[in-house]
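Why this split exists: single-chain examples teach little about how molecules sit against one another. For that reason, every record in the complexes split bundles all components of an assembly together and asks for one structure covering all of them. Below is a record exactly as it appears in the raw files.
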Amino acid sequence: MEAKGNYITQAWLVILLALCFGGGLAGLDAKLSGQIAANKLAETLGQVPALVPGADKGDEQIVDGQIVYRAVRGGEPVGWVIPARGQGFADKIELLLGVDPAVQTITGVYILDQKETPGLGNKIIEDEWRGQFVGKSAGSRLVAITGGGATGSRIDAVTGATISSESVCNIVNATLAKMRPALTAAGGE
Amino acid sequence: MNTATPEAPAVREGPTAGERFLSGILPENPIYRQLLGMCPTLAVTNGMQPAMTMAVAVLFVLTCSNLMVSLIRPLLKPHLRILVFTLTIATFVTIVDRFLAAYVYEMSKALGPYIPLIIVNCLIISRCEVCASKQGLVTAGADAVGQSLGFAIGLASLATVREILGAGTWFGLRVLPEMWPDWVLMVLPPGAFLTLGLLLGLVNWYSARRDSGSAAA
Amino acid sequence: MEYIGELILIAVSAALINNFVLHYFLGICPFIGVSRKLDMAFGMGCAVTFVLAIASFLSWTFTYFILRPGAPLTTWIWQAASPGTEVVPDLSILNYLVYIFVIASSVQFVEMYVRKFYPALYKSFGVFLPLITTNCAILFACLEIMKNVSGAAPADVWGLDKSLTLAIFGGVGFTIAIMLMAGIREELDLCDVPKAMRGAGITLVAAGILAMAFLGFTGVDRSLAALLMD
């Protein structure tokens, strides 16, 4: 019985501390949450000018139940930036896909998050490899090939990381197949 | 039960602040001697940058927790003291986590879940239990700084080996020639285990030699 | 079929591909400390799995209904207090405090259970049972649940089924790893390990080789996904 009473009386310190800490943390949250949210947004929006040449900012829109960014320059739409994710070799890959307003050509690819093998699959984040996607047609399925010399709708895979390269192509293909009709319709408005 | 009676000599209170500080760096090094805090040691040492960010985070959390626990040590009761420690640590870890997300977002993403895992880092709870709940503010603070320095040294030694061999860089700067074939395994989990195991063996061997050398002398 | 496929993917990923010990470096302290004997290792693995199940259930409940931005219970109370407000209540700053409470309570509960029904096991565990509170694996499971409940798009929010699958099979993976290590160490006891490497040193090296073996599982989830979801 004394032990039980002891537990309750001892608990007052825990409860008091919990309340104080909770209050302190709430204050911290009020101060910092704006900055953190801005960081998260800047991560995606900050890439819009790089992905769609000539754009100076992106406006968030919901098309077909998915968040996309309409790239604008001075109020005029100059393209779309679509966030996409899919299975890579090791884990999920998240990327941003830039296309022109008519969704005919790919203007850029940016890898947001990946956990591929360092030194091998990791190379998909390099500018040089991603640059292959610029100018490819958005209508045909992209294929990653080994051995070099890729033209048309083919991409040179990273040496030693065929699956990672294929995964990126698959994600791009799937996203375009899903969003192209909806985006062309939305672009027409 | 653990408060020194007025007549008892001061040495009953435990090591002094200076002793606590110095012992934390090498003699009671958290990683190589106490074998505590292994989880972040293995996880974030694939580069010097994440390793040092973790070291700074642990310094902040350990110091604040030690000071806070030392402040409230007269109020601590035996049964619930571990809960009080973890509560305090969780609060300071939340603070660090939010600060990192607000001001160094990229590094916060790279460290991922390992910042919140500082909460269950055996090192911090152990210091609260062994030192802060029994000794004054200055000693607790010195202990925290000493142990954090030791932790940082351990992290740095591991991260240096892993980053240089695994990526040829140190702190992101290229130190090995381009033709070095990166030992990718070093920055992957197996490399972490192997490096820590071998470094631990090295430290043990060196200290055994030093002890036998001084014993023979 | 796709639903079962998703659960199988989460289970295999948590147990083998992204093994809690050998890939995420969680639970290293008990991994090194308790892996000397096979039966102790198995007991520890089961205890950790048990705690994982309870802790993940409680933390999912708290996160889903109270802590995440726009959680049902919090929104209801907020609306009742100040009706018609546009503000979305977000208590996720208290996540870590709540999780640590949940974990401490789960461990306490499991301790009482083991002491009542398996007193011999309780004695052999000694101090290691309460030390499960500081096992990173449990907090990590809570954090994964938080990531997939608070931080995911509304269509991708994890239900209790996926959270429990992750936690329990994560515990299974931990048990596999610790039992493998115990088997290896029982053999190592008969070997002539250099003095400097005895204890933690050789255990870590063996763990490194084990981790290399488990690296071979990378990419299995991709093929499994293709197999199960097509």
